[in-house]
Amino acid sequence: MAEQEVPIKTVHLFPLLDQKLIELLKSLSAEEWNKPTLAKLWTVKDIAAHLLDGNMRVISLSQQFIGDPPSIPINNYSDLVDFLNGLNATWVKAMRRVSPQLLIELLEATGRQYSEIMSKADLLAPAPFSVAWAGEEESVNWFHIAREYTEKFHHQQQIREAVGKQGIITAELFYPCIDTFMRGLPHAYRTVIANAGAVIQVTISGEAGGDWFLLKTADGWMLTQNTGSAPDTKITLSPDIAWKVFTKGIDPQTALDSSHVSGNINLGENLFNMVAVMA
Asked: Fold for domain 3-168?
């Protein structure tokens, strides 16, 4: 597979996304740094600290350092989520001693290193970590890197939502994020029963959105191109609702009420319980 055939290209977007983040953080007042966010117990500053953690872990991994191993066995997905949540909470609590100004400086410095590491990655090599929320035990680097992009995107969007300063729900920056999230649809629908040949169309409205098609086969569900026939179910969401659905930023029923589902309603409702983050 040539580089231009990589399904979702995100490597070139990291510097731009980081630039948007730094510009945003530099514009915040002291009050805005402490505003609550959709990330449950985290403030704006806590999310910025979490983004710094992500940068530093990637840089450390590139230096062949992975830190202490888990203190308890990781036997399943739930164990992994609990372990990661513990790491995140410890880091965020410690970083509350750090000033917003220093956080920005550290994010700028590590962001450049992070982007350079991603730019040198072999996109077709095995990834260091699988994309577990898509049901994969092994992943290819381009998908792992796209997952990393969704992390940076949705956390920045959580900050923007909290302070009322939009700016990244664009075709250039949003579409690769939502396209990556959609890769988790077959796994999310793995227990959903339907006749072989059933098609679900998911539409994200607006210039930043698009259409995705989920097909039921004898072996399970799979993403496919437009079949040309009328879908059994059509789900239409706005970009603002879509990113929140996949990151546990909105109650499923609220999201369903804010969207449009036609055809087989039961098939459509399952999408609103999908999570494309480690949660």
From this structure: Four Helix Bundle (Hemerythrin (Met), subunit A) (1.20.120)
CA distance 250 to 150: 17
Q: How far apart are CA 57 and CA 68, in angstroms?
A: 12
215-248 pLDDT, tens per residue?
A: 999 999 999 998 788 999 999 999 999 999 999 9
Burial readout 143-177 (b: 16 or more C-beta within 10 A, e: otherwise): bbbbbbbbbbbbbbbbbbbbbeeeebbeeebbbbb
CATH number at 185-273: 3.30.1050.10
User: What residue spans define the domains of the chain?
Assistant: 3-168, 185-273
| Angle formed at CA 244 by CA 183 and CA 83, multiple of 5 degrees | 75
**Taking residues 197-217, what's their average pLDDT?**
97
The one-letter amino acid at 36: P
- The answer, as to whether pTM is greater than 0.90, is yes
The beta-strand segments (E) located in 125-193 are none
Task: Name the burial class of residue 252, with classes exposed (0-12), middle (13-18) and buried (19+) by CB atoms within 10 angstroms of its CB.
Answer: middle
pLDDT in tens, 139-195: 999 999 999 999 999 999 999 999 999 999 999 999 999 999 999 999 999 999 999
